[in-house]
Amino acid sequence: xxxxxxxxxxxxxxxxxxxxxxxxxxxxxxxxxxxxxxxxxxxxxxxxxxxxxxxxxxxxxxxxxxxxxxxxxxxxxxxxxxxxxxxxxxxxxxxxxxxxxxxxxxxxxxxxxxxxxxxxxxxxxxxxx
Length: 129
Fold this sequence. Notes:
By secondary structure, the chain is of the alpha+beta class. It has two domains: 1-59, 2,3-Dihydroxybiphenyl 1,2-Dioxygenase, domain 1 (Roll), CATH 3.10.180.10; 74-129, Roll (2,3-Dihydroxybiphenyl 1,2-Dioxygenase, domain 1). The chain has two helices and nine strands; from the N terminus they run E-H-E-E-E-E-E-H-E-E-E. The protein has helices spanning 13-24, 84-96; strands at 6-9, 27-28, 32-34, 39-45, 51-56, 77-80, 101-107, 113-118, 124-128. Strands 1, 2, 3, 4 and 5 form a five-stranded mixed beta sheet that branches. A hairpin with a 4-residue loop joins strand 3 (32-34) and strand 4 (39-45). The model has no long low-confidence stretch (mean pLDDT 91).
């Protein structure tokens, strides 16, 4: 078995799509739109075959996210970029472009070299080897 995709509700799917395309080389297909419900989504595909569905609908309320606290639900997801140098380089690019870096780059106690950043919607993304 494998996870087919992970889905994230967004307030601005165009901004979120652009983030993953710019920093993680995601590719996307045609935007799906259901005019009856106001639902819109993109599937983003990564080189590994993993997919991320980003979705938007006016009836979905936005909540406040505090990245300094844990809460139930999706905690984070990790994207492997291949090497420590690439983790460092991408973390620096994300930071230079004004996005928040929560931690790292650093070696974790369980042996991962990673940094932790927030995407345009405040979702926690680990950038790892």
